Amino acid sequence: FINITTPQPLPTLVHFDPRFIGGYRNQHMRFVAFVNFAVENSIPQLLLPSLRWGVAQGEHRGRDVPFDYLFDVAYWNERAERAGLPRLVRYDASVLEGRRSRRRSGTTDMMDNNNKSTTIACFNTSSNLYSGLDEGLLRNPNTNIRRVNIWDEIGRLDGYAHCRRLPPSSVGQQEQDVGDEFTHLIAHGGSKGVGRLWADYNAMQRRRGKAKQNTTIDNRTITIHPEHLPVERTINTILRPSEAIRNAIQSAIVSSTTAQKDQQQQLRSPSKVLALHPRIEHDMLHHRCGRFMEQNLTKIFDHLRGECSHNVELLFLAVNIELVMAEPGSSLGSDLRELALENAIVLNRTRTYGMFGNESSVGIPMFESGSRTAENILFPEEQPTDYSKAGTTPRLVSSKSLGITDLVASIVNFFTIIEADRFVGVKGSSFSTDLFSVRYYMGKRGNYILGPEGVEELVGPPPSHSCN
Questions:
Q1: Which residue from 325, 326, 301, 302 is spatially nearest to 315, judged by alpha carbons?
Q2: Is the full-model pTM beyond 0.90?
Q3: pLDDT digits 0-9 by tens, 421-433
Q4: Secondary structure class of 315 (helix, strand, coil)
Q5: In what order do the strands lie in the sheet with 447-451?
Q6: Residue 419 · residue 249 · CB < 8 Å
Q7: Is 392 buried (19+), middle (13-18) or exposed (0-12) by CB count in 10 A?
Q8: Pairing of the two strands 123-124 and 396-398
């Protein structure tokens, strides 16, 4: 790990927010915008310990974990340069920070990485935050970081002015030199409100263009949406789960499919899996995006009768079981409370009898993964960012003990759906939209959009995520 993340003395983009914000796929969208900023500004490295992903809701809201818990760093770095994306690098002050030497070459001061006598580092290895930021405030789960303008705090403390560095393409190096200190680190992030990264991602979607094409397939008119920008297409193919999560996903799929067939049947013909992301958790029932979705689970299953469930032997339901089964809160009106209770009954019946099943007839068996799989995944205990102090054999800790089960469960569900034969998702959900995208760019067909009017096959990439 140390060798594959060795930094070079080159511009390196640092995520200054304490974590990406939002649910799992909203965090992914911000990550895409962050990577795109590096590409557009010719920044060849991303500082790995600054890329932390967070838990958005629940009792562990505000917890965050390093990128390498969740995703395969080696896989990314082996492909990034060839694909035109920045490498993920660890922090090494001897490479990335220093003081300017008084030696001169022509008319330019020389950068001396070896002069460390009074170097002021722009990255804090204890907090994994940009230097000078208030860790107590930003790591507090009760702090709404959407209301904190973090960029304004960077470089304000005495001696840290050089840390407020802009990309080389934004301003000439000579113009941004501050005293004798220098850094290769360039801070970038969301800042206040929904944040710059969210705005930048939406701008990327607008740049896809709005031109849609209609084509006829099997006597049906199909709408083809524009493809994503090259950066996002590439990320969708080289960002894969960490080894621990991949192994857990495969184990869950195998155990679920073999439970339905004997070994000889399984060898002859693996079970065909239909994955469904209905988004019927209570928070979405009154969300503005909910108007694009069918929210009655009985009607959803009725819409699935026919082509998309033909010859399917297993149903994978990507839903937060606990949230669907919970007592509806007071924020739901009486009609929505009644709908929530009905959905819970239907879900429970489906878990027992399968989709389309009842007391007298077994339907398509349903299997779950998510939290059940995620909570027992083990990760190596987080090591110091200063790798010279890292232990050689870190102990293993479970996602449950770390308080990150919800986040890991979302990743488990997402990549389980990638493996499915067919997928039915909903418009208005960033999770579904990104699944359509990743499956398309990985060559996975059999994608369907579900709405109040029924199910429509999606050919090509999906439309941009929007609730408008």
A1: 301
A2: no
A3: 999 999 888 889 9
A4: strand
A5: 366-367, 314-317, 273-276, 422-426, 447-451, 454-458
A6: yes
A7: exposed
A8: unpaired
